[in-house]
TrEMBL record:
The lineage of its organism: Bacteria, Bacillati, Actinomycetota, Actinomycetes, Bifidobacteriales. This is MFS transporter. PANTHER family: PLASTIDIC GLUCOSE TRANSPORTER 4. It is found in: Cell membrane. GO terms for cellular component: plasma membrane.
Length: 468
């Protein structure tokens, strides 16, 4: 590499370090607009959990087709996470989060109009593409538009929004149950309604800017200075970047993965993030997602009573999801993950005892413990993966990490209905316990503490902005 190229890359690293330490007056608003997408995603995904009995009554699908329809969004999200991560690095963060939410709103309406179970399954696969793309893009946006320390807290709130989406699904389904509406009307309305908040979120995001960091990475220094000055209220890149644009080579996926694994810190952080994302999805979609169906199968209570019990459990889970990010400064991502995965294992075992004895109180109590732990265990994986990656390939790194969430979700949702039938609920859930134990060990022995991580201060020292 020529001395000229080395100089420009030093300049880019210095510019990113400067941007990493800026805070805009409306940065938190931008963060909330990113994580709110998870509310809409969970609303859509968990609506399936509560309307599967209606779909059975209307279409009489096989267990395999029902499981595939439930898992369809997850399959599409795998494609969306990979594709969206690449597209956001290539075309910009703003373009992708606007396009993804538009596509999701269209797919939500299409779901409600599906004429058959097979068509619904296909639509849900397509609907998953914008879901995966938006999450990969949203985490990337937060890492670049918010200052260190605050961005991790905001990013970890994604599970809080996820829990609120589940509560919205429960409230809506229960209202329809109490209204004694026909099952064929109920499932259609419930799957189509998330289009409304999707459109509202799209409108709210309209005025958000592209990140200055993305412009810097693409050599578009004139726009980077303009956007940074407007967003942060000061020309923080003045004298840091050239006053003209430059053509820069792009980082390939192979180079991104190689770079992630070349440094022990980013390698260990990334490996943990992948394990954490895979396990948190598996524990969730093998247990809590099917809990309404499990309770209905046991015949302990009516559908409405089951929904009310689940509402109470998820209210508790929402508190957990809200509290988790607030503990980061005290216990870090490492401690939060250890507590989370540990509680998940304990909670599932308690619930299995309740299922074996047909005791509703023990089942709900164990579910509460499991979900409290789940929302702590699932908060840090995606955040860590996005945090330690360099801006040049942050979208790709975030997309790859989220692929592990959706891969586990798809496989679990498709396989577990059959597993429940062949092994029984108790044995199937006991198998699940193995995975949070593995993730607990990964948090203990693989994950370095990454809270407050930022671009190395070395480049700022070179620029004279940090004194030794």
């Amino acid at each position: 590499m020529s001395d000229k190229n080395l100089a420009i890359y030093d300049t880019i690293e210095h510019a990113k370090a400067v941007l990493d330490r800026q805070e805009a007056p409306h940065a938190s608003k931008a963060g909330w607009l990113m994580v709110t997408a998870l509310l809409i995603e969970s609303w859509d995904i968990y609506s399936m959990s509560f309307i599967m009995t209606h779909l059975k009554d209307v279409f009489h699908p096989s267990a395999g087709l029902l499981g595939f329809t439930s898992a369809g969004t997850q399959l599409g999200a795998i494609v969306g996470a990979i594709l969206g991560g690449w597209l956001t690095d290539k075309f910009g963060r703003r373009n992708i989060f606007m396009a993804s939410m538009t596509m999701f709103a269209i797919c939500a309406v299409a779901q409600g109009c599906a004429p058959s179970m097979e068509v619904l399954a296909v639509i849900r696969c397509i609907a998953g593409i914008p879901v995966g793309a938006d999450v990969a893009n949203g985490f990337t946006y937060m890492m670049e538009i918010m200052p260190k320390g605050k961005r991790e807290v905001m990013a970890n709130r994604w599970q809080f929004m996820f829990s609120l989406g589940i509560l919205c699904a429960i409230i809506l389904v229960t209202a329809f149950e109490l209204g004694s509406m026909h099952p064929n009307v109920t499932w259609r309305v419930i799957l189509a309604i998330p289009a409304i908040p999707a459109v509202l979120l799209l409108l709210a995001r309209h005025n958000l800017p592209e990140t200055p960091t993305w412009y810097v990475e693409h050599g578009r220094f004139v726009e980077a200075r303009k956007v940074a000055a407007s967003y942060y209220g000061k020309d923080c890149l003045n004298g840091v970047v050239p006053d003209h644009d430059m053509e820069l080579p792009r980082v390939t996926w192979g180079e991104a993965v190689k770079d992630l694994f070349s440094d022990p810190f980013t390698r260990r952080s990334t490996i943990f993030a992948w394990i954490s994302n895979f396990v948190q999805a598996l524990e969730n979609y093998s247990f809590s997602f099917y809990l309404p169906t499990i309770l209905a199968g046991l015949g302990i209570a009516t559908l409405v009573q089951n929904n009310l019990a689940m509402f109470a459990v998820y209210c508790l889970a929402s508190i957990s999801a809200f509290v988790g990010p607030l503990l980061l400064r005290k216990i870090g991502h490492k401690g939060l993950s250890q507590w989370g995965f540990g509680l998940v294992a304990v909670g599932i075992v308690i619930s299995v005892v309740g299922i074996s004895s047909n005791n509703m109180i023990i089942i709900i109590g164990g579910s509460g413990v499991m979900l409290w732990g789940h929302y702590w265990s699932s908060e840090s994986g995606q955040t860590v993966a996005s945090l330690v990656a360099k801006p040049a390939y942050r979208g790709a790194a975030s997309g790859i990490a989220y692929t592990f969430v959706k891969l586990a979700s798809f496989v679990t949702l498709w396989v577990f209905p059959t597993l429940f039938e062949n092994l029984g609920v108790v044995k199937a859930d006991l198998i699940v316990v193995i995975f949070p134990v593995i993730a607990f060990l990964a948090a203990s022995f693989i994950l370095p503490e990454v809270f407050d991580h930022a671009v190395s201060a070395e480049s700022l020292k070179k620029g004279g902005e940090i004194k030794d």
